[in-house]
User: What shape does this take?
Amino acid sequence: MAAVTYELKKTCKQSGARLGTIHTPHGSIDTPMFMPVGTLATVKTLSPEELEDMNAQIILSNTYHLWLRPGEDIVQEAGGLHSFMNWDRPILTDSGGFQVFSLSDFRNIKEEGVHFRNHISGEKLFLSPEKAMQIQNALGPDIMMALDECPPYPAEESYMKASVERTSRWAERCLEAHQNKETQGLFGIIQGGEYEHLRKQSADDLISLDFPGYAIGGLSVGEPKDVMNRVLEFTTPLLPSHKPRYLMGVGSADSLIDGAIRGVDMFDCVLPTRIARNGACMTNHGRLVVRNAAYARDFSPIDRDCNCHVCRNYSRAYIRHLIKSNETFGFRLTSYHNLYFLLDLMKKVREAIMEDRLLDFREEFFEQYGFNRP
Ligand SMILES: CO[C@@H]1O[C@H](CNc2nc3cc4c(=O)[nH]c(N)nc4cc3[nH]2)[C@@H](O)[C@H]1O
Assistant: This one.
């Protein structure tokens, strides 16, 4: 029995969107869904109990960061990530492919793997497909990601072709190095930038390896939204409809809706918790920077149309005061609200797909949020 399986439940009549359920050893996940990011085995400032209260079905953690701190051996001795962080729902770990290229000021990509510097200590490190699999097997997530290269945007076609071919060879090596097949699923990552023929080559290579799920990588790296949407339009149909499709690093409300419309099932991004720590909140009426002076005497909730614990109990004036005073509780309140907002948005997306009205929902939401405003 495979560790991770996908059940396609309904395809939307209005678009390429679909409803499904991903079954994992730590529970089932209704899709399309958003994964809160807990890079260092914590979704910053929030507790597992709070994440369960807001119906987070799965969280994401990171191989590169946990390898450096505290070390996968310590997490393994704790019984794996679920025990270590007291989270008994599904966990997905990214492979480190992105962090090595985004965090390290020195990196040298070779066939055998990537040589780079530890972004904290400066010591030289080496990450290979086999090492990335050994770390993830030790961390024990339900879903692991293959080690890939996330190329810079934009990238020359010749560079992108060579990078895609190496990522495909690395994916095969990850499969060969995969232990714990009955308790951990391994997803492949499609690369190819904005080159349609390279996305096809990457998809063909990885589909031939029969992964239980596929991620679309190399996006949300600075490209315009219309480029992302165009790449999704010709890439998601290449992927098997009976397996989950995961768009890595995407987390703004409009991108989540537009990704779901194009057949994406899984999303993750640091955006909601990152902007929360800067005092910025996602609301149904646009982004609200609650630290602004305008809210000093505003005793209304962050979002009058939000039913979260924060919006039912705390005012903009109070949260602004905490943020301006650098009080941790302020960051907890904005982080809780932003994650609740995105998780609730994905619940509304699932309901809209069920009722075959996702495109109508998009129009209503974009109008209310102000995305259509020039
Ligand atoms: C928009 O927010 C900024 O951009 C990042 C999100 N964007 C993103 N694109 C990604 C691509 C890949 C990939 O191709 N491969 C692997 N293995 N992991 C990936 C992770 C990714 N995350 C945030 O970290 C933030 O800095």
